[in-house]
């Protein structure tokens, strides 16, 4: 389906799973209540919303997290219905999620982690030397010390280092669709600028990369300059537009959209 959009979310409803209690099964809580979104190749979309609006739930549901249950609607990637696909299958197909709170992986170096991930993504065994050279190039472009690749993934990393590492992974794995879940969370102005510049560098290399940036704040949007801005409140997209919409949000706050 060559004419299909790169990424589509169609009337997505997501809840927490049922919980077994002493009195029986307790139904899950509805979080997303009909989210629809279409991202074309090369586009950057920003999704903004207050705490509890469902932003991170959407990010996790898009990558197939078992913590959430899609009760209706579907997710399509390059025309294929991936709603039931496992997380690793989505990753191999070309999807990427930059986590709000990246996990530590003790005993696994950044180099070895990326070698395993890239081998799975490409379907071939990656050469350590080839990957090391690629990492050194990208680390230089992202203002990261080359010794970083020998450190265990996210272990002892500062907030800025964790987010740079996520962008490094995004550069090396060469996804076609990237979901950035509050990548600006906890970053100072300089670290935010570095991360945003990293995203720009990757997009220059990969013109067709689709990006969904999920954030609280306009400051990330000022750097990314998204093509489309969406506002998510109480599990629904209540407004869509361009940077003017983000400026209105900055001036009037989320209350004006409720």
Quick overview of this protein structure:
With 258 residues, the chain is α/β, with parallel strands linked by helices. The protein contains 8 helices and 14 strands. Strand 6 and strand 7 form a beta hairpin.
Polypeptide structure, described:
By secondary structure, this protein is an alpha/beta fold. It has one domain (7-257): Rossmann fold (3-Layer(aba) Sandwich), CATH 3.40.50. Helix content is 35%, strand content 29%. The chain has 8 helices and 14 strands. Strands 8-11-12-5-13-14 form a 6-stranded mixed beta sheet, sandwiched between helices. Strand 13 (228-233) and strand 14 (236-241) form a beta hairpin. The longest helix is centred in the C-terminal third of the chain and has 17 residues, at 189-205. The chain is globular. The model has no long low-confidence stretch (mean pLDDT 87).
Task: Break the fold down into its secondary structure elements and pairings.
Layout: E1 7-15, E2 19-21, E3 24-26, E4 30-39, E5 44-48, H1 55-62, E6 69-77, E7 80-81, H2 87-93, E8 95-98, E9 105-109, H3 110-122, H4 128-141, E10 152-153, H5 159-173, E11 177-181, H6 189-205, E12 210-215, H7 218-224, E13 228-233, E14 236-241, H8 243-252
Parallel strand pairs: 5-12, 5-13, 8-11, 11-12
Antiparallel strand pairs: 1-4, 1-6, 2-3, 6-7, 9-10, 13-14
Helix pairs in contact: 3-4, 3-5, 5-6
Features:
258 residues, alpha/beta, Rossmann fold, six-stranded mixed β-sheet, 35% helix
Q: Terminal Cα separation, in Å?
A: 38 Å
User: Which class best fits the helix and strand makeup?
Assistant: alpha/beta
Mean pLDDT across the residues is: 87
The total domain count is: 1
- The name of the CATH topology is Rossmann fold
The CATH superfamily turns out to be: P-loop containing nucleotide triphosphate hydrolases
Shape: globular
What's the alpha carbon Rg, rounded to whole Å? 18 Å
Largest beta-sheet characterization: 6 strands, mixed
Helical region count? Answer: 8
Number of strands: 14
What share of the residues lie within helices? 25-40%
Low-confidence stretches: none
Task: Provide the β-strand percentage band.
Answer: 25-35%
Q: How are helices and strands ordered from N to C? A: EEEEEHEEHEEHHEHEHEHEEH
């Amino acid at each position: 389906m060559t004419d299909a959009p790169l990424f589509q979310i169609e009337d997505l409803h997501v809840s927490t799973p049922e919980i077994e209690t002493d009195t029986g099964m307790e139904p899950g809580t509805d979080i997303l209540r009909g989210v629809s979104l279409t991202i074309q190749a090369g586009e950057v979309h920003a999704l903004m919303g207050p705490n509890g609006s469902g932003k991170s739930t959407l990010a996790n549901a898009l990558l197939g997290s078992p913590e959430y249950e899609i009760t209706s609607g579907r997710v399509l990637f390059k025309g294929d219905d991936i709603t039931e696909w496992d997380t690793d299958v989505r990753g191999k197909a070309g999807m990427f999620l930059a986590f709000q709170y990246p996990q530590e992986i003790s005993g696994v170096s950044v180099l070895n982690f990326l070698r395993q991930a890239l081998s799975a993504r490409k379907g071939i065994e990656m050469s350590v030397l080839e990957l090391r050279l690629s990492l050194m190039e990208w680390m230089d472009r992202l203002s990261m010390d080359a010794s970083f690749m020998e450190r265990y993934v996210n272990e002892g990393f500062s907030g800025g280092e964790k987010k740079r590492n996520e962008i490094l992974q995004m550069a090396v794995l060469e996804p076609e669709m990237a979901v950035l879940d509050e990548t600006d969370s906890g970053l100072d102005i300089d670290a935010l600028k570095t991360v945003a510049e990293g995203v720009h560098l990757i997009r220059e290399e990969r013109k067709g990369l689709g990006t969904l940036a999920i954030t609280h704040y306009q400051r990330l949007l000022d750097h990314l300059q998204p093509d489309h801005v969406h506002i998510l409140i109480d599990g629904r997209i209540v407004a869509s537009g361009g940077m003017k919409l983000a400026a209105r949000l900055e001036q009037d706050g989320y209350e004006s959209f409720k």
